[in-house]
Design a protein that fits this description.
Radius of gyration: 46 Å
Order of helices and strands: HEEEHHEEEEEEHHE
Helix content: 25-40%
CATH class of the largest domain: Alpha Beta
Largest sheet: 5 strands, antiparallel
Number of strands: 10
Number of helices: 5
Length: about 325
């Protein structure tokens, strides 16, 4: 409030007043403070969001690392499993080969040749020879159920039985003896499909237990006889009444034994080679030496497969009566 006087010295006691309003600068206004609050909140939100993203990225990186480690561990485990299977397969293959004779018998009356080609997954194909004191030739030819070491187990057992007992028993008794032995040791669903041939001079006797037919090429007229004998695989049933087929061979006649690997081999169209093609190939090649007969069958099979992976072991044996 301002008071003043005139020239006469008279004062104005009421005085005069001038109201002034001082406004704050813009950075101190309510809008400014509101903006400050919003900016602070936005800044805090941005920091929080960045922190969350950083943690998420860190978690993703950690998860990626864990996945990579898991994948690497799985890869190593798979590699170890493959190596184990490869070793087991090779062990089974070596076991299979160790069960086979190093060479076929060289006899004055017979010319014998054998062929075996194992599949990727080793089966249980087996063949063997045993010569009795009287010169009788016993031939074992079989196919164990299963693959790998399982098949190797049954083949090992069968080899022991064949070498120790085949010459002591007739064929029927030997089959019953083997079937009982396999059944008694409780190998589960492991059996042995088996063919046994006994040769003495021109006389031949054979029996089969769950095996493909035996083919007989008659040199006299060039015909092929299919000898099919129904019987349960060894170990499937005790005291099965196995039949025995006997015959007198003539000069140049050839017995051909084979597992189901070749007849049941499929081509690219899913068709089986089948026994009719085996018979046709034998008709065309039966007059040849055993090795050439087998080579013909193998060529026919390879041509039929035309690059298709072999499903099962292929084993073929040819026995020709010499002149």
């Amino acid at each position: 409030r301002v008071r003043g006087s005139n020239n006469d010295g008279v004062w104005n006691n009421e005085g005069a007043a001038l109201r002034l309003t001082v406004t704050p600068p813009w950075w101190k206004t309510r809008w400014a403070y509101g903006t400050y609050i919003v900016l602070v909140l936005a800044f805090l939100y941005g920091i929080r969001t960045a922190e969350i993203k950083r943690r998420e990225q860190k978690a993703q990186i950690r998860e990626s690392q864990l996945r990579a480690k898991a994948a690497e561990a799985e890869k190593r485990a798979l590699q170890a499993e493959n190596e184990r299977k490869t070793k087991e397969l090779e062990d089974a293959r070596q076991l299979q080969f160790s069960m086979l004779p190093k060479e076929v018998p060289k006899l004055p009356a017979y010319d014998i040749s054998v062929f075996m080609k194992t599949a990727t997954e080793v089966g249980g194909d087996y063949y063997d020879f045993s010569i009795g004191q009287d010169g009788t030739l016993n031939i074992a030819f079989g196919d164990a159920t299963g693959h790998g070491m399982q098949a190797g187990t049954i083949v090992t057992l069968m080899k022991g039985l064949f070498l120790s007992d085949a010459s002591r028993f007739d064929i029927q008794t030997f089959f019953s003896h083997c079937s009982k032995a396999i059944k008694d040791i409780k190998l589960g669903r492991l059996f042995m499909a088996f063919t046994m041939v006994r040769l003495q001079g021109r006389q031949a006797a054979l029996s089969t237990a769950g095996m493909p037919p035996v083919f007989l090429y008659h040199c006299a007229d060039g015909s092929v006889e299919e000898i099919l004998m129904k019987g349960m695989p060894l170990g499937a049933m005790k005291n099965f009444p196995y039949a025995v087929h006997t015959m007198e061979l003539q000069q140049g006649d050839t017995l051909v034994l084979l597992t189901d690997g070749l007849p049941e081999q499929k081509n690219g169209s899913g068709e089986m080679f089948d026994y009719s093609r085996v018979r046709s190939a034998l008709t065309a090649s039966g007059a040849l030496p055993p090795k050439d007969i087998i080579d013909t069958l193998v060529r026919e099979g390879d041509s039929w497969m035309a690059g298709v992976t072999q499903d099962d072991d292929i084993t073929i044996m040819a026995i020709k009566l010499k002149g």
